[in-house]
Specification:
The complex is a heterodimer. By secondary structure, chain A is mainly alpha-helical. Chain A has twelve helices and four strands. The radius of gyration of chain A is 19 Å and the shape is globular. Chain A is 71% helix and 3% strand. Chain B is an alpha/beta fold. Helix content of chain B is 40%, strand content 23%. Chain B is globular and about 60 Å long. Chain B starts with a strand and ends in a 5-residue tail after the last helix. The chains are: A mainly alpha, B alpha/beta.
Amino acid sequence: MSRRGAPAVAAALFAALLCIAPFLLSTYWVDVLDSVGLYALLALSLNLILGEAGLYDMGHAAFFAVGAYTAAILSTSLGIPVLLTLPASGCAAGLFAALVALPVLRLRGDYLLIVTIGVGEIVRIALVNDAFGLTGGSNGIFGIPRPVLLGWRLRTPEQLFFLIWGAVAVTVLVFGRLSASRFGRALRAIRDDEVAAEGSGIDTARAKLTVFVLGSAWAGMAGTLFAAKMTVISPESFGFWESVLVFAMVLLGGAGSIPGVLLGAFLVAGLPELFRGLASARMLVFGLALMVMMVVRPRGLWPRRAGGGP
Amino acid sequence: MSLLELQGLSKRFGGVAAVDGVSFGVPDGVTGLIGPNGAGKTTVFNLITGNIRPDRGTVTFADTDITGLAPHRIVARGIARTFQAIRLFGGLSVLDNVLAGADAGLRAGLLASVLRLPAQRREERDVREAGLAELEFVGLAGKGAAPAASLAHGERRRLEIARALAARPRLVVLDEPAGGLNESETADLSGLVRRIRARGVTVLLIEHDMGFVMEVCERLVVLEHGVKIAEGPPEAIRRDPRVIEAYLGAAEGDPA
């Protein structure tokens, strides 16, 4: 039991630290943690696609954008409370993923990477050009109402903290169980050898479609939380760079490992804040830190063990 | 009618006829598919398992036409395979490799897995038990938790066979199962093939090791240049002048 006990204790400690963090840290740092939490949601959902199934998706921000804009449009023009748009945002992002999956999922490796970058750019450019007259062009959409949870209107970073990190907790639970099930096993088999997976009786086309739609829908729901937190969204929040950052979180932390991906989100989203004192050189230092870490630990900082759980 | 029937199978790659009008049946027991290098044996396997589609001809399994079905559907119908160059899931544990082979028989959906419904937990427990039993059957008991990438060559071959058996097939097709094995490992493999047959599973195998083929196979089919040139019991094949000329004669003094 001690082998399984240690990670459980570490996880409980981590959760306890997070729960008291908003009471100890300044509002600025709580706001940083809110951003880290949103990135963690994105990274966990991309981890399903990239880390578990090995599908090189570098357009994850596109689905984040579809969800955020769905939430923004429904809440500003129809007056629907922003958190109630979660299912619609998830469905919109999932449907969009299913639409692009047909050409995308036939490809492998680097080809898939290029096409998903293209998908991300198409979405961003469509938003800039005020797609369907709904997205507000490069100004985006403002005046998104504050989220209301059980009658409470969440305004401060401290209040949003519990909403966002609560969503992360649910995500860890759901994806952890999926990863430990036959679905996760099938995805990892596809990642290791797709031909052998198909030849072992795994419906690879269906598993790839399912994981792509599920991971993208989850990014869409993260988009709802992002819109609710920001109250203003614009295309620049959903550029190629966002996809690259989330991609880096998964690979850096440890593809396929949930604690690793959380660590990746903390490092990639949090480190530039720590380096803020270096002013304009901070992204340079950050880039160097990434390179050193990938050379020293190519499988990620906290990789998944072959035999073990998530 | 045999369990598996191939009828006029043809497949061209570019201008080359890799398989040209091949017909044969695979009855219960152990059948060997032999022939010189480049005779089209692996292509025939890939046509059976759905990895490639034939230009002409049909594959009939248990009286149903399975021509052109996706490989995972063919596994679900009861044909499991191994690969010539071993293809394991290196990042998975040994047991998870076997469980991946059982996937076609599992029913749990996403929601049941997230909620850990009783049916899903029972299914996982049962498939784990069955997987451990397959590991024991092929002689890999106690290795379930090890990463598949850590196994020695001979163990990988056996793990691939365990993964195929986990699908509970009626027919297993083994592509050069003795490839790269030493003498004692090959002897173990003969025993394993016999025990698979004793379970009531039909075996079709490609092999170059003639000693092994003559020992374990009850029937042989011989291919040369994509065409079937002989079929029958090993003793008859051994004496068939066309086979001797095409294959055994050339192989004399050649350990391969």
